[in-house]
Amino acid sequence: MKVLVPVKRVVDYNVKVRVKSDQTGVDIANVKMSMNPFDEIAVEEATRLKESGAATEVIAISCGVAQSQETLRTALAIGADRATLVQTDVELQPLAVAKLIKAVVDKEQPQLVILGKQAIDDDANQTGQMLAALLDWPQATFASKIEVSGDSVSVTREVDGGLETLKLSLPAVITTDLRLNEPRYVTLPNIMKAKKKPLETLTPEELGIDVAPRIKTLKVTEPPARAAGIMVPDVATLVEKLKNEAKVI
To answer: What is the pLDDT of residues 105-154, one digit of tens each?
Structure first.
């Protein structure tokens, strides 16, 4: 079974993002970039499937600027066998990314696509669902456990009422939640090996996909500063403030 894992290059989760002075977007100049944490979980899960014998090959794919090669090399160091970069300087939106991934799926013919449930930069949580719709494949989102058996896969996912288990026929699309696994530490020998693994570069034009943005961002602003809390001497004062100032009771 061949597994395809899309990964995204995002601002590292430890970095405090800043809005550009002209409010056109987030300033990423000289900012540390890394793999989207949910995608890292997806690569780890695909690697574990390969190590258990359920999968035979893991292919990582990324869409974006040339520097996304670094993100793909990380995926290769975790355990992916080869990688594909769909290179473009155009700002990619979820539907465009889903179309690009579909084009690569049509080319590679994997039986399973595992990707992060969302990216931490835009929190869109759309690409996996759009991909499943474009492919007309069954999907399971927010997976906390994955078990492959023959031509089907069982996925346990967290819902408001507890846990829900779905059984999907392959091929299928799965998006990962935080509790699925804990990604391994990437060792130096694996980083060196990753440099020798094949990395193919394509363009949206070669795949016949139009990635022109459909949504225009008018302005990006930081959220308002949170007001400082206050101490009250007793319950009566608290109730009075909630009633007269906060207007919540």
So the answer is: 999 999 999 999 999 888 889 999 999 999 999 999 999 999 999 899 99
The pTM of this model reads 0.84
For the chain, give the percent of residues with pLDDT over 70: 100
Residue 81 and residue 8 in contact, taking contact as beta carbons nearer than 8 Å = no
Domains of the chain, first to last: 2-244 (3.40.50.620)
DSSP 8-state assignment for residue 156: E
d(CA 9, CA 222): 22
* pLDDT score recorded for residue 46: 96
Contact (Cβ atoms closer than 8 angstroms) between residue 93 and residue 25:
no
Confirm if 4 and 43 have CB atoms less than 8 A apart.
Answer: no
Bond preceding residue 171 cis, omega within 30 of 0: yes
Tokens of 240: 């009075």
Cα 70 to Cα 34, 57, 88, 164, 249, distances in angstroms: 8, 20, 15, 36, 53
pLDDT value of residue 189? 92
Q: Which amino acid is residue 122, in one-letter code?
A: D
Query: Alpha-carbon distance 6 to 209, whole Å?
Result: 17
Q: Does position 206 have pLDDT exceeding 90, yes or no?
A: yes
Give the Cα separation of 6 and 36 in Å (integer). Answer: 10
The two tokens of residue 110 are: 């994997």
Query: What's the rounded Cα separation, in Å, for the pair 141 and 175?
Result: 5
Handedness of CA 152, 157, 41, 88 (dihedral sign): positive
The length of the chain is 249
Q: How far is CA 232 from the centre of its chain?
A: 44
